[in-house]
Amino acid sequence: MALFTGNYNYIKDGVALTLNRLVAFLEKRGVPVLVFAPVAETPAFEAVGELVPVPSFAIPTRKEYRIATGLPEAQRKRLAAFRPTLFHIAVPDILGYQALKLAEQWKVPVVASYHTRYDTYLRFYGLGFLEKLGQRYMKNFYSRVRRVYPPSESMAEIIRREGQSQHVEVWARGVDSEMFSPARRDMAWRRALGIADDEVAISFAGRLVKEKNVAIYMRVMNQLTARGLKVKPLVIGDGPERTAMTSGLKNGVFAGFLHGADLARAYASSDIFFFPSESETFGNVTLEAMASGLPAVNAIASGSNSLVTDDTGYLVSARDEATMAAKLEFLVRDEALRRRMGEAARQRALTFSWDHILSGLLESYRTVLREAHGR
Asked: In percent, how much of the chain has pLDDT > 90?
């Protein structure tokens, strides 16, 4: 299989980690994989499998991200020598589009995973007028592949409703429930950050970027602080909005970018997870927080809708900050409710097994190949 993506290891985000986990799974089962993606001088982590770099440039307003400029002749020759029987495209960018056209020319079946609502990102950077154009492009792109794999049923419904594709199968995400566990709670770690034992730590986790609605997190948390509630905003992550959040978030604690056991400890040492982002198609951070035993207050979004239920937290419109604040205050004031919802969240997270999920995707690949070859 040939995998094409906009980020494989130059930034450690949920998409990159998921794709690396997929490649590791496939190679263990004897499936050869060749990955094509932009690279950086200093990668965020070591890539799994063979990574073929493609030309790219840094986005002027978001220099931490890169845009692939295509698939040059040298990379095409390497791909031809590899003789892939299946193309998996993770991002509908220039690289992804050229891969799609090449697969059509070579008559190789193509599948695509759906990780992010890129069309919605435009509104956060003053380009909302291009959103309809972006939706038309995505409809053209995804209608030409044999399967589209969104990470949640709610996202699958949007893809079908918008006419992007009717050949949709959910490829959910899993969680390491041994790593992310309430057992990782560490009161000494909290105290070292200045979080008192009687304060309720309300965490946010992820890239600190506009499209994660970090401004909403700040405003709502400042409301709770202004009401005199004993809360402590705990921000886990880093990004270009860090400076604005540091100056605008009252009484906030910034843990920085964490991973592995350190990240698991930060979740478990929180009391509530608050994630107002609408751009997630799944929400890896929400699932990790739930596995860590946290009730969640999330914006209504295609990803969160498939994770957060009435007994594990609350879903609220991102445009209703007053209700978000009210739900958080409700949880802050009721420790028994927090504990009950946190236990339910943990049990729900346990149903998301990586091995089961990736085995299902591999079987879908095989079905696509049988269909493509009339077997």
From this structure: 81
